[in-house]
Specification:
The protein has 169 residues and is mainly α. The chain has 2 helices and no strands. The N and C termini lie far apart (160 Å).
């Protein structure tokens, strides 16, 4: 071997280089394609997993938004139901109070009519009793020998006076 300076050229380097190239070609033919295929497959699987995860996240957000909207709609419907129920209850309460007032008013009118009827009956009974008293007074006057005409005028006068007087209520 010859030595010339810092770098020595030896055929062993050439052989190593040829071995490396042959090894590279063999690996390229048999292993690199498989490794590249494995790496591509793995890369595609990772990309697919990421895409599926993004789709799942998007779907989850969509479902969440849908559920939140449904919850909001249900809450609004609940508020409407409560509002309607409250309005119905208030309406029913007003109707019950109105019916009770109307019924009380009818009872009061009926009672007043009954009292008026009783008052008239009492006045009529009193007039009849007064007429009887007047007749008895007339009989006593007749016993004293009054004329029939004077007697009649006296009875009518007593009845008129009694009929014009006001009776206590």
């Amino acid at each position: 071997m010859e030595t010339t300076g810092l770098i020595q050229f030896d055929w062993s380097y050439v052989m190593i280089l040829i071995n490396v190239v042959i090894l590279y070609l063999i690996m390229k033919k048999y292993f690199f394609a498989k490794i590249r295929g494995f790496m591509q497959k793995r890369e595609e699987e990772i990309a697919s997993s990421i895409e599926q995860a993004e789709q799942a996240t998007l779907q989850a957000h969509t479902l969440k938004q849908t559920y939140e909207e449904q919850i909001e709609t249900l809450e609004e419907q609940g508020r409407e139901i409560l509002k309607t129920a409250k309005l119905k209850a208030e309406s029913q309460a007003r109707r019950i109070v109105h019916d009770a007032e109307k019924q009380a008013e009818e009872i009061l009118k009926h009672t007043e009519a009954e009292l008026e009827l009783q008052k008239r009956k009492t006045i009529e009974e009193a007039r009849e009793q007064i007429a009887e008293i007047a007749m008895m007074a007339a009989e006593k006057i007749l016993e004293k020998q009054l004329h029939h005409r004077e007697h009649q005028v006296l009875i009518n006068h007593v009845i008129d006076e009694i009929g014009n007087t006001k009776w206590p209520n």
